[in-house]
């Protein structure tokens, strides 16, 4: 007799439908070592087998290592060896380092892709058509969180690369060797995936706090030699620029921020990826000091430059969905005012609150912008996919002042076009365009134009800049496409805003 | 003007073009470009016009274009041709 039997009147009507206590579960209580290590498996293959992954399922990844990601190809190799086929690959984004995914598509291992964007050989090959049986679904960062919330995108297994975690699965991107900093995109996968596999370089003592990905969402843990190369986070789109033309554009964009009407104490700002956009931060610090204006907070991809402003007391808090360089990654550990937000908190239209809706100013890049201020950040003027939707349309929808920065001409290709090759962000959400040949303001924002003019900034029209570009470059021939749809561009609310057609060879 | 020796002008930097010329019986122009799809025809026309202006009627002219603007292409073609023809031009007249 243990004292618990016979206490419960099982026939009482008040207890109808409830289950009487039947004694403590034997489970693993007796062997506490085994209980603690129960999630840790010996190999990726074992993790995949135990996850129950099968043909046609969805596997998901984060892209916090950007060009240094080493996990996607490792997992695909093991998946193929197990004979699993027809998978949906759902990475928060794909980069030039993922060129070998082409082979997995050709061999039938991957048949659908959800991603924010693509670069390099994978992007070029898909853009030429005839490779993927289904078009790539291109979403924004906020849109990805919304697609997961709606259930359209529900990973069967999320493989989340981390530098270190404990045996229960508490992980952050700020301990261990390969630190990527924020795990904002991965948090959405950890929330919605059926099975969460942490792929780690190191198992550390419990509790690995402060944890970002938490133990209660983690099913399995597997140790591999390397998940990513953090030294390759800030190459490509997140590079820092010394190009004088980018710096000129950045300086002009800073003028626009200063005089656009939102440069007041406590303002909030995000600078997107791309040379000129990230360079704005450096100029902004000088203006803030000169004018005695401090920012309340900065959002987004956080750079070392933004961390410097924070540490000088010029930016109150940093909300970090992805760390754009190693300085930002290490700041997360050091600075209590620098915290992580998930992609859902960052930008999801389905979230109960998203940071982008509180943004005052955002600086964004563009591959193309058209006479209606519509922006393309996905396809090059040759029609091939070469960029990413990212947080572009999310932040443009939320921010009060949306500044697009771009050189007027890139190697003979005008940035301003009559009609964008691919629509990512609607022009009604874009306020100012800053180029090396001049600044123009969307006619929908006359008050902004007046403020800039009053501050002595020369404002021209987008039509005049377009004419100047054609005068210099000549008029480019339109790219020929076939009927095949290779990409479906999803707006942040999940609706289809455009399609990408295969480039005719 | 006649191409007497192999010669080269320009670079493979972005927004430049590398032009090579060699002696040949007939005039042959080869163009590759990073902006072939958008400007291929325009680049060929610019090269042909410049060769015509310089009176080049034979030789192998190879242009590797990296998105150069027309004035750059004209200058690089002219530079390579003058070197290949071992000409000592009166620069003020060019």
From TrEMBL, chain A:
Q: Tell me the domain of life.
A: Bacteria
What main location does UniProt list? cytoplasm
* Keyword Cytoplasm tagged: yes
Keywords (alphabetical) are: Cytoplasm, Lyase, Transferase
Q: Which InterPro entries match?
A: Citrate_lyase_asu, NagB/RpiA_transferase-like
Location in the cell reads:
Cytoplasm
* Gene3D superfamilies, A to Z: Glutaconate Coenzyme A-transferase
Please list the reactions this protein catalyses.
citrate + acetyl-CoA = (3S)-citryl-CoA + acetate; citrate = oxaloacetate + acetate
GO molecular function terms listed in the Swiss-Prot or TrEMBL record: citrate (pro-3S)-lyase activity; citrate CoA-transferase activity
> What's an example GO cellular component term for this entry?
ATP-independent citrate lyase complex
**EC number(s) of the enzyme?**
2.8.3.10, 4.1.3.6
**A Gene Ontology biological process term:** acetyl-CoA metabolic process
Q: So where does this one cross the membrane? A: none
**Pfam entry (one):** CitF
Protein name, UniProt field: Citrate lyase alpha chain
Species of origin reads Propioniciclava tarda
Q: Which gene encodes it?
A: citF
UniProtKB/TrEMBL annotation, chain B:
Keyword line: Cytoplasm, Lyase, Phosphoprotein
A cellular component annotation (GO) from this entry: cytoplasm
User: Which positions does the record annotate as the modified residue O-(phosphoribosyl dephospho-coenzyme A)serine?
Assistant: 14
Superkingdom field: Bacteria
**Where found in the cell?**
Cytoplasm
- GO molecular-function annotation terms? lyase activity
| UniProt function note | Covalent carrier of the coenzyme of citrate lyase.
Which NCBIfam families does the annotation name? citD, PRK13253.1
* Entry similarity comment: Belongs to the CitD family.
Subunit structure comment from the entry: Oligomer with a subunit composition of (alpha,beta,gamma)6.
Q: What is this protein called?
A: Citrate lyase acyl carrier protein
Provide the taxonomic classification: Bacteria, Bacillati, Actinomycetota, Actinomycetes, Propionibacteriales
């Amino acid at each position: 007799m243990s004292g618990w039997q016979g206490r419960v009147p099982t026939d009482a009507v008040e207890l109808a439908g409830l289950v009487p206590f039947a004694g403590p579960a034997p489970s693993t209580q007796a062997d506490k070592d085994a209980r603690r290590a129960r999630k840790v498996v010996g190999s990726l293959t074992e993790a995949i087998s135990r996850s129950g992954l099968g043909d046609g399922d969805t596997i998901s990844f984060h892209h916090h290592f950007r060009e240094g990601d080493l996990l996607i190809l490792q997992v695909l190799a093991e998946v193929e060896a197990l004979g699993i086929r027809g998978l949906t690959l759902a990475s928060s984004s794909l980069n030039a380092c993922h060129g070998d995914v082409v082979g997995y598509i050709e061999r039938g291992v991957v048949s659908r892709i959800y991603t924010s964007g693509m670069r390099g050989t994978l992007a070029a090959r898909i853009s030429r058509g005839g490779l993927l049986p289904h078009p790539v679904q291109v979403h924004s960062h906020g849109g990805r969180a919304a697609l997961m919330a709606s259930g359209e995108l529900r990973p069967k297994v999320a493989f989340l690369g981390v530098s270190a975690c404990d045996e229960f699965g508490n992980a952050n991107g700020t301990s261990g060797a390969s630190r990527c900093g924020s795990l904002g995109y991965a948090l959405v996968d950890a929330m919605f995936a059926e099975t969460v596999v942490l792929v780690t370089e190191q198992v550390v003592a419990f509790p690995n706090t402060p944890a970002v990905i938490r133990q209660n969402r983690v099913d399995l843990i597997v140790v591999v030699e390397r998940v990513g190369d953090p030294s390759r986070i800030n190459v490509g789109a997140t590079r820092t620029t010394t190009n004088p033309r980018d710096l000129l554009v950045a300086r002009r964009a800073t003028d626009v921020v200063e005089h656009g009407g939102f440069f007041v104490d406590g303002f909030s700002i995000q600078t997107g990826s791309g040379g000129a956009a990230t360079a704005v931060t450096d100029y902004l610090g000088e203006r803030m000091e000169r004018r005695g204006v401090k920012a309340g907070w900065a959002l987004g991809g956080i750079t070392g430059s933004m961390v410097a402003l924070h540490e000088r007391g010029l930016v109150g808090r940093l909300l970090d969905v992805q760390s754009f360089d190693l300085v930002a990654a290490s700041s997360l550990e050091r600075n209590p005012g620098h915290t992580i937000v998930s992609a859902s908190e960052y930008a999801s239209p389905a979230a109960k609150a998203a940071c982008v809706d509180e943004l005052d100013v955002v600086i964004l890049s563009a591959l193309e912008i058209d006479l209606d201020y519509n922006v393309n950040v996905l396809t090059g003027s040759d029609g091939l996919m070469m960029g990413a939707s990212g947080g572009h349309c999310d932040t443009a929808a939320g921010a009060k002042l949306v500044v697009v920065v771009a050189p007027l001409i890139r190697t003979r290709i005008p940035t301003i076009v009559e009609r964008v090759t691919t629509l990512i962000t609607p022009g009604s959400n874009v306020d100012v365009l800053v180029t090396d040949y001049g600044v123009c303001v969307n006619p929908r924002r006359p008050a902004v134009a007046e403020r800039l003019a009053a501050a002595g900034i020369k404002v021209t029209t987008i039509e005049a800049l377009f004419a100047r570009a054609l005068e210099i470059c000549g008029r480019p021939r339109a790219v020929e496409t076939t009927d095949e749809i290779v990409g479906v561009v999803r707006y942040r609310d999940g609706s289809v805003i455009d399609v990408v057609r295969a480039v005719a060879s | 003007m006649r191409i007497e020796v192999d010669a080269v002008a320009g670079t493979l930097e972005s927004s430049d073009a590398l032009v090579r010329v060699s002696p040949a019986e007939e005039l042959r122009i080869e163009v590759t470009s990073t902006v072939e799809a958008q400007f291929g025809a325009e680049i060929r026309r610019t090269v042909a016009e410049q060769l015509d202006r310089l009176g080049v009627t034979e030789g192998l002219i190879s242009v590797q274009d990296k998105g150069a603007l027309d004035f750059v292409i004209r200058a690089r073609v002219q530079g390579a041709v003058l070197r290949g023809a071992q000409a000592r031009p009166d620069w003020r007249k060019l």
